[in-house]
Specification:
Elements lengths: L4 E3 L7 E4 L6 E7 L6 E6 L12
Antiparallel strand pairs: 1-2, 3-4
């Protein structure tokens, strides 16, 4: 992922999907416009930041 875009894992140049930070998806089929390869994309939400403070 680069600048909110999922980059094609095959050619490394094509942007295949724009995502937000809270996006979650499993086995989402996407086709790269540059190389034409279709891949399954898995997107997971990031781990929430810990709000604990040390005293």
């Amino acid at each position: 992922m680069r600048d909110g875009w999922i980059i094609c894992p095959v050619c490394g140049k094509g942007k295949i999907l724009k995502v937000r930070s809270d996006t979650i998806a499993r086995n989402l089929p996407r086709k790269c416009k540059r190389c034409g390869q279709e891949t399954l994309v898995n997107i997971e939400a990031p781990e929430p930041a810990s709000k604990e403070t040390s005293a």
